[in-house]
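Bench notes, bay 3.
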Amino acid sequence: MRLLFVHERFGALGGAEANVLVTARELKRRGHTLAVLHGPSTGREIASWQETFGERYALPPHGGTPAARAALAAFRADVVFVHKLSDLDALDGLTAGAAPVVRMIHDHDLYCMRGYRYHPLTREICTRPASGYCMFPCGAMLARNRAGGFPVQWVSYTARQREIALTRRCARVIVASEYMREELRRNGFTSAQIEIHAPVPAPAVAGIAPSFGPRNRLVYAGQIIRGKGVDVLLEALARVREVFDCVIVGDGSHRAHCGALCRRLGLADRVRFTGFMPQAEIAAHYQEASVALMSSVWPEPFGAVGLEAMRYGLPVVAFDAGAIREWLLDGWNGFLVPWMDRDRYAAGIEELLRDKPLARRMGEHGREWVGARFGFPKYINGLEALFSALGGKHASSAPAPILA
């Protein structure tokens, strides 16, 4: 089949980008022809993306309808696979074409004007659909401007409603969890339109297994943004009495704040920030580790990084936020800690560091659980079946779509 991927970035950055690349690589290996319609480069792992996508079409900064139409006409896709895309004109152009559109919802941007589904001051998790409440009293139409200049920018409620309406045009909407399916139902999508295909990580690097060694290595891997709760993680680590060595792998807008907090808490000799790392280098840290940490305080749509750690045989300690409870079973493959409970989080870490046989058993449970419930071939097989069912109604040999 001819599959046109669409994503607002080109290159590695976070979980969405990792999913795009591993999914595309496997579909290409299985004989499908791929192209990508993409936004600006991230500057990371560009060669891997270029190798995977032989045909590439660039989106302009704004008003992407002509670019979307041109890509559809040039590539003649059987199915269009949309990931994150903030250009609504481009989305309009894609969904107006003849090829069926499948959209994967990676996070909360579709129905939350802030995008992270919790209040910026209290961090209380929101459970409301997109509505006038987002404007008042939530005040989500005002957001921090991270691009420089004026510190505040306007977020359009009308644009968010338009994006929801355009996404309802898609033949299918893919989510990773029951939690996300309920979020879409809350926002007016039908059950028949939503499919769950969990974007699990690819198989672990062969020969790598955690050491559970005496250095008590803890590993956090992910973006360092406020919703990921690295500041809360540091406050929990300050309560851990056992000797430990923690590596925080990743980067983001909250890194400077977390670095300063780390020093204030007296953790600078035990916590190291490495910045962004390729997956193979993260795997090497997993090999030296005893526990994997997740500290998200926003409601995780899925939390694939936790399953990635479990695939290497590590127990996971995480807060109960969003879909994490769908794969982290408290006391069996790690500890699911009540939301924002720093004392319980620290206690979970301490128990695993003191009792390495327990940590090893939980890690093995996690490895078995991921293999049985979230296998990578199962994920790709599900996507292939969906694309075949939809793409069979739109052969690539058909005339080019009428786009005027």
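Next record in the batch:
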Amino acid sequence: MTIKTIVLASASAAIVLLSTAAAFAQPGVATGAVNVRTGPGTGYAKVGALSAGEYVDVKQCQGSWCFVDRNSGTDGWVSANYLQPANAQPQPQPPANDDIPFNFGVTVGPGGPSISFGIGNGPLPAPIPVAAEVCFFKGNNFSGAQYCVSPGDSDPSLPGGWDNSISSITVDGGAQVTVCKNTWYGGSCTTISNDKSSLGSYNNAISSFQAF
């Protein structure tokens, strides 16, 4: 096989792969504001944010995270909790041999939300539970350094680097957290069960917590 033949074969293979990837993309819509990250998890850097009602193409899902292609803004990974299939007007369909059905579902149960994702006409696979987790951030809007804990974790006296330094909090998988302004769960306390991009009077004023 000549070098020219090898190059042409490689180029053809790349075109086939790109065409297949495009066929897998499915329209979705953000149900609320959510961060866009460089990888499937809160430990990856934030590169932007989806707005509620923003339409995207869902390229793939991994665990409880999906990679989305945005019409505007940086592409990246978002929590599947904030996505649902788009009820868009019918779009031109690709040729029949490239038309691959897409299944996407969200279930909310006692253990928190879970998602199902599949390709083909078969039934949805078993739901994948979203890990219960609480993450603290030093900056507003889930920015800056972060510190994540699981239900059952607690700290009666946050270390110096985090004492009076928390400015936003995310909660996933049905987790909750009670935060207090003083050590040993003293002073004013509040329980948080939803993401908080800013903490009001608790901003930079938390000294202890209990996650559950």
